[in-house]
User: Which sequence fits this backbone?
């Protein structure tokens, strides 16, 4: 903490000393600043491409602001992932003769300090979509422009800007299918931009290097204890790793995607979400790869390619729709989008919450998911739905409690996709699953993991149970349990709640919310900065 304060102070001092240079005309050799945020890559990075095209020397900046624009700071797993991705970006820039300048402190103060100390002629960034972030970016852009600097923002995160797709009344869409159809009618997004061919970096003045931090100083990586072993084994970081994952998915798994994407034990989904989250990869790059695969005869039969392409592009669509919601409902992570849910009698159940978090609910499919999450920082989508349903319906926990746990433990924890999906599962969101659709965790497991491969991997204490019992060990006879070496209630818990009772309790609670189904109230349509 002392270090952070020191860095902030250092930045402010530089800013004040150099303020006068900002008002004069910028000399031709003045550098430009690329402010990296959720776009930690070199290719299809519109702000970087624009900056490089000016021909001016580049300063590549990343600012860690623990309270960035009043938004929620990243959770533990996301911080580790950010650390690794920043390291990879810095290495990529160094290979090209530059570096990533790291600063810590209030972000607009740090940015203006960087501008002042370097005499920069312009600042370029890709947009963010949180309400506070957009307001902060708009203010910053106005301040920089008022001082005669060029300040420009770009779309580096989405296929379709959220204010461009509205219904016939000029309002935001509430239903995914109608919204996605409208997006598709708008045509394909532009193709991805290549990484700059020529690199010209500004050598950093001493005033700036004094304020620069080392990556380890940000404190993103765990030390004592180092709990990130499972994350490290699972996720190679950076743009190169992201592009490899992208190619591997389309070469190996794409054809099976439509049929097998719901089976967590088969691992055919792309696993691109962590890379998309930090922008090591852009959605336009993914979309372009999808289009190429659709026409690639090596990617399977035409029919399977078509259905896989349809499914996969609609999943990318869901990502976009989550951002659309974040844009139109800036308090997506805090407020029930359907006000009727304000009357929901959520339970305060610390024991239940803890059992769920630790993967000890007694429902093997749920527990496998929660343990996969804890170990790898990721969970398969089907299992995310089942575990979130279990938390909000079987345990009647407020969706915000579950969302917060995912926020802390997911490497892909996303300010749009996480709350939007939690509200979808809970029933409180836009175009949400009806609350009365309550997943049966046993049937879900039997359907999507029929041989129990996924459970055997993540709940090894049950590995020797036969397939017919692995989803419901409480139905096993004493003989079966002994043969499998399981002592129920000792090696593995009995269910924390009985399914039918939990279901009835959830429906009764839901009835208390009344039938009111108000239209979610959003904020006006205004472009992002
Ligand atoms: C309760 C819950 C919480 C979630 N939290 C997050 C989160 O914090 N961050 C996150 O990226 N995703 C989240 N998701 C969505 C989804 O589970 C993940 O995006 C997906 O599992 C990532 O795996 P993949 O890359 O292999 O997906 P694929 O099936 O290969 O899909 C390709 C891409 O499409 C996007 N996508 C797929 N499904 C969804 C979806 N339902 N919503 C939004 N985008 C989607 C992702 O960017 C994904 O990488 C959540 C889902 C649920 C049910």
Assistant:
């Amino acid at each position: 903490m002392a270090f952070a304060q020191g860095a902030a102070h250092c930045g402010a001092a530089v800013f004040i000393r150099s303020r006068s240079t900002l008002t004069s005309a910028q000399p031709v050799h003045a550098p430009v600043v690329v402010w990296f945020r959720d776009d930690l890559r070199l290719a299809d990075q519109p702000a970087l491409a624009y900056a490089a095209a000016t021909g001016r020397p580049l300063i590549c900046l990343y600012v860690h602001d623990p309270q960035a624009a009043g938004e929620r700071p990243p959770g533990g797993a996301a911080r580790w992932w950010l650390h690794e991705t920043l390291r990879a970006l810095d290495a990529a820039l160094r290979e090209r003769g530059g570096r990533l300048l790291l600063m810590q402190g209030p972000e607009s103060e740090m940015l203006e300090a960087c501008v002042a100390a370097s005499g920069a002629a312009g600042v370029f960034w890709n947009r963010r979509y949180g309400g506070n972030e957009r307001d902060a970016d708009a203010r910053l852009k106005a301040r920089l422009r008022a001082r005669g600097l060029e300040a420009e923002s770009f779309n580096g995160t989405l296929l379709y800007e959220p204010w461009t797709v509205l219904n016939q009344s000029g309002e935001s869409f509430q239903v995914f299918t109608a919204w996605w159809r409208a997006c598709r009618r708008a045509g394909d997004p532009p193709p991805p931009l290549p990484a700059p061919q020529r690199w010209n970096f500004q050598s950093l003045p001493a005033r700036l290097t004094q304020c620069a931090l080392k990556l380890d100083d940000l404190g993103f990586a765990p030390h004592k204890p180092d709990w990130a072993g499972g994350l490290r084994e699972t996720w190679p970081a950076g743009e190169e790793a992201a592009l490899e994952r992208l190619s591997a998915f389309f070469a190996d798994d794409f054809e099976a995607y439509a049929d097998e994407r719901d089976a967590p034990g088969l691992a055919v989904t792309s696993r691109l979400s962590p890379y998309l989250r930090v922008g090591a990869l852009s959605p336009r790059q993914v979309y372009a790869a999808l289009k190429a695969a659709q026409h690639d005869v090596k990617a399977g039969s035409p029919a399977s390619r078509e259905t896989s392409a349809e499914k996969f592009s609609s999943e990318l669509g869901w990502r976009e729709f989550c951002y659309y919601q974040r844009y139109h409902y800036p308090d997506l992570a805090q407020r029930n989008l359907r006000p009727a849910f304000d009357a929901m009698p959520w339970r305060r159940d610390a024991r239940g919450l803890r059992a769920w978090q630790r993967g000890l609910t007694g429902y093997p499919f749920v527990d496998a998911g929660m343990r996969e999450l804890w170990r790898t920082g990721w969970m398969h989508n089907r299992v995310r739905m089942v575990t979130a349903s279990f938390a909000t319906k079987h345990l009647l926990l407020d969706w915000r409690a579950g969302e917060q746990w995912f926020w802390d433990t997911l490497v892909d924890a996303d300010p749009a996709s996480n709350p939007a999906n939690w509200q979808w599962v809970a029933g409180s969101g836009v175009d949400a699953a009806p609350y009365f659709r309550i997943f049966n965790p046993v049937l879900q497991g039997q359907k999507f993991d029929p041989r129990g491969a996924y459970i055997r991997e993540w709940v090894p204490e049950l590995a020797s149970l036969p397939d017919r019992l692995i989803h419901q060990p409480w139905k096993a006879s004493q003989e079966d349990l002994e043969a499998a070496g399981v002592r129920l209630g000792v090696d593995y818990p009995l269910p924390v709640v009985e399914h039918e009772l939990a279901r009835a309790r959830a429906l009764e609670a839901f009835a208390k919310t009344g039938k009111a189904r108000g239209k979610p109230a959003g904020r006006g349509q205004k472009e992002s900065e």
Summary: The domain at 2-156 is CATH 3.40.50.620 (Rossmann fold). Confidence is low (pLDDT under 50) at residues 1-24, 521-526. The longest helix spans residues 302-328.
